[in-house]
Amino acid sequence: SQTIHQWPATLVQPVGSPLSLECTVEGTSNPNLYWYRQAAGRGLQLLFYSVGIGQISSEVPQNLSASRPQDRQFILSSKKLLLSDSGFYLCAWSAGWNQPQHFGDGTRLSIL
Amino acid sequence: SQQGEEDPQALSIQEGENATMNCSYKTSINNLQWYRQNSGRGLVHLILIRSNEREKHSGRLRVTLDTSKKSSSLLITASRAADTASYFCAKEGSNYKLTFGKGTLLTVNP
Question: Is B4–A97 a contact, with Cβ atoms under 8 angstroms apart?
């Protein structure tokens, strides 16, 4: 069966520090991969998605970037975090378009 | 504008009662999906209903889709305390990306 791993679960970082969140999927090949951010009490905002290795689409201009160095690995990064980057970050995968998405347990990021 | 808006924002019921949540959208869709999120956790997919479908069932869950009214509903029958969670509808539009609503917080009291 397919599984998705996302880490760390929580992270506290100072303003201006770098960020690297990692997500890996097991049990499937060539998945679509997604990074979302969820503000408190809100729905999810799509940040990035990828349909293949090295293929990244950005949905909103921001301080973050994403990379997909391997088929089942998706990384969310920042060179310098801002206070506004705080939030709950969720990684997800799907077998393609018009398919359900499957989410990791999320990373709660607090910027001090 | 954001699509996949849920109604009500919060719902509190007693165990054993049915819970109905509604979702409206504004433009055409490929499919509409419902997800559940327990506090502090990731989302769990519940049901995907395609634009040419009108109703789907999964256990105690029933989802309807009315494309003429651009609305969907999620019915949870015989609710349990473990059903307490936030429920989101998400619309996949012609661009194939999911747009989530703000969710309905369901509280089932024992």
Answer: no
B33 to A100: CB separation less than 8 angstroms, yes or no: yes
Contacts of A4 by beta carbon, 8 Å cutoff, 6+ apart: A23, A24, A25, A26, A91, A92, A93, A102, A103, A104
Count CB-CB contacts under 10 A for residue B2: 14
On the CB side of B9, how many CA atoms lie within 13 Å of its CA?
4
Tell me, yes or no, if A95 comes closer than 8 A to chain B by beta carbon.
no
Q: Does B80 touch chain A (CB under 8 A)?
A: no
Cβ-based burial of A22 (10 A; exposed 0-12, middle 13-18, buried ≥19) = middle
pLDDT digits (tens, 9 = 90+) for B80-92: 999 999 999 999 9
Task: Report the run of H or E that residue B100 belongs to, with start and end.
Answer: strand B98-100
For B3-24, how does the pLDDT look when each residue is reduced to its tens digit (9 = 90+)? 558 889 999 999 999 999 999 9
Closest-CA residue to A81 (of A11, A6, A5): A11
